[in-house]
Structure prediction request, 407 residues.
Amino acid sequence: MRANLSVLGLVAGATMLLPGAASAACETITLGSAISLTGKYATNGMHTQNGYEFAIEKIAAAGGAKFGGKCYNFKVIYYDDESKGDRAATLTERLINQDKVQYMLGPYSSGMTKAIAPVTEKYQIPMVEAEGASRSLFTQGYKYLFAVLSTSEQYLASAVALAAEKAKESGKDPSSVKVAVAVENDPFSLDIRAGVLEDAKKFGMKVVIDEQLPRDLADMSAILTKVKLLKPDLLLVSGHSKGAATAVRQIDEQNVKVPMIGITHCEAAKVTKEFGDAANDILCPTQWAETMTYSDPLFGSAAQYHDEVQARFEMYKGRSVPYQTAQASAAMYVFMDAFQRAGSLDKEKVRDAIAATDLKTFYGDIRFSEAGNNIAKPMALRQIQNGKYNVVSPPEFASAKVNWPRG
Prediction:
């Protein structure tokens, strides 16, 4: 179980071992993470921490990372960044200078990652991150930043392509599709917006609404009034967990009818639990799904990972394990693999081994570009159908046909 936060926001990095773990003789490698356990990103911060800790448990149960004739288990020193970028940067400095951490796991969100990346780069600390998808992170020339997830401009691209496909099926030109976009003013969501606008332009679609969500993400009724007036064919919303909850609730309250709706962070916002049938037929981009045909020697298949995590954490019982948790575990797996290939605790050798990663995992293939982003894994698109998340894109992973038009 997660230790309580102290006044300083430190979470003890104690590792709980799975039954049968033969790890008493292993040494310990300490990593650091400034992570959102309070504030607006707290929900996804907890999903991320769960993913790190589950992977640490699995590694220990498998006998630890093995190199140089020794075995090593992992622990993480966590500090709560309170969902504030300046605090995240300060805490990262503390982890490096006071706690002497030489390897870093990422925070939650692109904004927090953007805040601490200059710090880890300054001190040449390898960081494998799982939750910062903004493509702008990978245009800065960073040499110590690596991300296991697909970059943000890809999140809703499949929804635009799906809308074009449905237009063709109904005898219309894709250029006839009208698009509405509403996003949070943060790096991740703004990159999603840029990707949507690029994809819409490719199809000649008209963007009739292009708005930023209110800062507190609590009320998008004014935007939805415009949606009802302008009648777009596709509505796309990105505002992390709080924005997703607001969107689903108010779309239902205002009886907004749009043939296709895509919203990020559906699972993290628990929209099926909180809003029931109101969430049906909404499209939700995902980095990962348990129905995908990925597997590896440590975690087994995607389905096995899902079932074990669901059993391990009470908060996931009766619901799908969010992709934020899965990709956090994948980031920890990358570190284990890199240490073993480097055969060393030297952070430069570990950094080079991370850069050379070519790994098949339960989460998907991981291979980094020179810029540090994962270039080996596609995004997926799920639709909520009768309260369940079914993959509808890409076709090779689809477990169901898309319901269209919505409502």
